[in-house]
Structure formats: structure tokens, C-alpha cells
């Protein structure tokens, strides 16, 4: 953990669906430039945490701060304008639009200029997309569609990128390429909060990984824990 002010801070956040808590008293921090993991079993509250940050679901109690400013009660478009981007589960790309057209839709969300440069950087980061820039997104492989979904969020120039299970449903070799992509995204200085089911891979990649269970924080792991299967399993299953 760095000494800098967190870019994202959750303080004792509780989210309820119809009165039933899905996230309970969750506190976590992401410093600028960090890639932080959020793992846990199905139904642990991972997606709900991302949706609460994005303003898609209301926070019952607690506080969410981006760069020290409260996001509570803000609609998703205001949260997006403050520099937060969410890549939801399921690689939602516009199948009939070309790769470049998909990216241009992402550019529309930019707060500042520099769109051409952002496109160039995206193609630099994802050479496979550059090769397919005029092809319809629907003909890309699952892994390439995931790259496109991430690239489309990146061209908007977010300060904070929220990723919801980018490796879901991908073949193992493709999962490797997604994790390599995330490492390169971090190297570019983008701050990332990564929700994943692939615990070991995430713990190995992330600067720090929070383990959620039943809506609450169960453990905080570091890359050194990735090779400690017993600790990993204990944190996951305790
Ligand atoms: P998964 O890995 O399966 O996506 P998750 O850790 O992301 O799980 P959430 O999707 O955040 O978990 O769900 C947390 C809890 O909230 C679960 O019990 C789930 O059934 C419930 N839940 C999620 N979305 C809703 C909703 N829209 N309405 C009611 N309950 C919901």
C-alpha cells in the first residue's frame, strides 16, 4: 500500500436488495496506479460492489470516494464523467459495428480531446484489434471481443477502470492473454479494480487482492500468497 491518497475508497459500504444485504460493511482502498483484485465465491457481492461504485445500485450506508470526492447518490453518467469506467460481465460489444466503430463509441465518453491519440494507443496495446479494425466485432474470437470491451473503456480515458470477470467463459489459453493484457494496462498507469473468479491468477497479478464472502471482507492477499495454495484455499473457503 502506498502513502498516496487512495483513488478509490469504500468505507463501511452496505448495499441491500429488498432489505437483504448483498454487501456488508465493506471497506477497501485502491491507490493511483494500482491493480487491485476482488475475488470470492458466487454471490459474494463482487458485482454488486462494482455496481455500487458506478452508481447503478444505491448504497444503504457507508461512503464511496473517488480521489477524495463522494460519489454517493450520483447517477452512473455523473460517475462516468468523474473518470470511472465499468466493463461489465459478458463482453458486450456492438456485433454489427466494426472494431474501430466500437472504439469510436468509447471515444464519445472522453472528457477531454486527444481522441486520435487514444485510438492509436488502443491499437498499440491490442495489436490484434488493429489488424481487425474494419471487421465487424461479432466475428472476433471471445478473447478479442474481451480486448475490445476493455479497449473501448480505455479510450474514454478513465482514471479508474472497473472490470467484471473479464476471463469468464474463455478457454485457458485465452485467459492467459487476458491476464497479460491487464498487466499491460496497469503498466500504462491505469488504475484497475478487477473482479474475478480465477483466484490464483488474480492474486498473482494484483498488487493486493481482497477476498469477499457473503458480502463482507474475509481476507486481503498479496502476490506472495498466490503460490501458497493452503492460504489461498483457507482464505477462499474459511
Ligand atoms: P457472481 O460471481 O456469481 O457474479 P458476485 O460475487 O458478483 O457473484 P453479486 O452478483 O454481487 O455476487 O450478488 C450478491 C448477492 O446479491 C447474491 O446473493 C445475489 O443473489 C444478490 N443479488 C445480486 N443482484 C441482485 C438483484 N438485482 N436483485 C436481488 N438480489 C440480487
Chart the SSEs and their pairings.
Layout: E1 8-17, E2 20-30, E3 35-39, H1 46-54, E4 61-66, E5 69-70, H2 76-81, E6 84-87, H3 99-107, H4 115-125, H5 127-131, H6 142-154, E7 160-164, H7 172-187, E8 191-196, H8 199-205, E9 208-213, E10 216-221, H9 229-237
Parallel strand pairs: 3-8, 3-9, 6-7, 7-8
Antiparallel strand pairs: 1-2, 1-4, 4-5, 9-10
The protein binds adenosine-5'-triphosphate.
Adenosine-5'-triphosphate binds at residues 17, 22, 40, 42-48, 197.
What does this structure look like?
It is a single chain. With 238 residues, the chain is an alpha/beta fold. The protein has one domain: P-loop containing nucleotide triphosphate hydrolases (Rossmann fold). Helix content is 36%, strand content 26%. It contains 9 helices and 10 strands. It has helices at residues 46-54, 76-81, 99-107, 115-125, 127-131, 142-154, 172-187, 199-205, 229-237, and strands at residues 8-17, 20-30, 35-39, 61-66, 69-70, 84-87, 160-164, 191-196, 208-213, 216-221. The strands form 2 sheets. It has a 6-stranded mixed β-sheet, with helices on both faces. Helix 3 packs parallel to helix 6 (142-154) and helix 6 runs parallel beside helix 7 (172-187). The two termini are 25 Å apart. The structure holds adenosine-5'-triphosphate. The site of adenosine-5'-triphosphate (ATP) has 11 residues, from helix 1.
Amino acid at each position: 500500500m502506498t502513502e498516496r491518497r487512495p483513488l478509490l475508497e469504500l468505507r463501511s459500504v452496505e448495499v441491500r436488495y429488498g432489505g437483504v444485504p448483498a454487501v456488508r460493511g465493506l471497506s477497501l482502498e485502491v491507490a493511483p496506479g494500482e491493480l487491485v483484485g476482488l475475488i470470492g465465491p458466487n454471490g459474494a457481492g463482487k458485482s454488486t460492489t462494482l455496481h455500487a461504485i458506478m452508481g447503478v445500485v444505491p448504497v444503504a450506508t457507508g461512503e464511496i470516494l473517488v480521489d477524495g470526492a463522494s460519489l454517493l447518490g450520483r447517477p452512473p453518467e455523473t460517475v462516468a464523467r468523474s473518470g470511472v469506467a465499468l466493463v461489465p460481465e459478458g463482453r458486450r460489444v456492438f456485433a454489427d459495428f466494426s472494431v474501430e466503430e466500437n472504439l469510436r463509441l468509447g471515444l464519445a465518453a472522453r472528457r477531454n480531446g486527444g481522441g486520435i491519440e487514444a485510438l492509436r494507443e488502443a491499437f498499440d496495446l491490442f495489436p490484434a484489434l488493429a489488424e481487425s479494425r474494419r471487421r465487424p466485432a461479432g466475428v472476433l474470437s471471445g478473447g478479442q471481443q474481451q480486448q475490445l470491451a476493455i479497449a473501448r473503456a480505455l479510450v474514454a480515458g478513465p482514471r479508474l477502470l472497473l472490470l467484471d470477470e473479464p476471463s469468464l467463459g474463455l478457454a485457458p489459453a485465452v485467459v492467459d492473454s487476458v491476464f497479460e493484457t491487464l498487466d499491460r494496462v496497469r503498466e500504462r498507469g491505469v488504475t484497475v479494480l478487477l473482479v474475478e473468479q480465477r483466484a490464483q491468477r488474480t492474486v498473482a497479478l494484483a498488487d493486493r487482492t481482497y477476498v469477499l464472502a457473503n458480502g463482507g471482507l474475509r481476507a486481503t492477499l498479496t502476490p506472495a500468497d498466490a503460490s501458497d495454495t493452503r492460504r489461498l484455499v483457507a482464505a477462499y473457503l474459511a
